[in-house]
Amino acid sequence: MDVGSDPSAPTTAQSAPTNGGMDRGARQTLMIAYDGSDNADRAIRYAGRFLRAQTAYVVTAWQPGELSPARLSTLSGGMQPFIDTRLEEGVDQALEEEAETINRRGVQLALEAGLAARGSLVEVESTVWGALVAAADALAVDLLVTGTRGSSGLKALLRSSVAERVLKHCHRPVFIVPAQCEKQPPVTA
């Protein structure tokens, strides 16, 4: 879904540049994974400062309520309580609207950072990192930009990093902005 951008502009792999987006005469495209966190804000500012692209897709992954960890854990235990599907539709709509709001904020931040930004949502079917890698492939971007949470020690062992998984599984270059960056780059126009 296109968020906060011109609906007539291309957002699918069919309308993306051919040859993997590697036309040397054209400016390149990038995708920024955006979840509304301070670290995602920092990644946008760094992308605006250090990268130039014809288009910057700001992509927010969202997860329908039916795929929430609590819902899936009850199903995996064999317990299938009655759930009113109308309630699920309302929850999913609210979650998608929240993701749209977050995405619009990311697009605005990217525009302020000097990027030609367009917003897009991607629905999580399995994992967030998988949805982001699939979105990068579908959009045929030349570079995927993401921030990190900066977990270390036991927290890093217990939680898998989305940025780490994207780096491991993505078939294109990945620009990772670490959480512990000392300086915030200024917004440039």
Automatic annotation (TrEMBL):
Gene3D superfamilies: HUPs (3.40.50.620). Residues 1-24 are annotated as: Disordered. InterPro entries: Rossmann-like_a/b/a_fold, Universal_stress_UspA, UspA. This is Universal stress protein. Residues 28-178 form the UspA domain. SUPFAM superfamilies: Adenine nucleotide alpha hydrolases-like (SSF52402). Belongs to the universal stress protein A family. Residues 8-18 have a biased composition (Polar residues). It comes from Gordonia aquimaris.
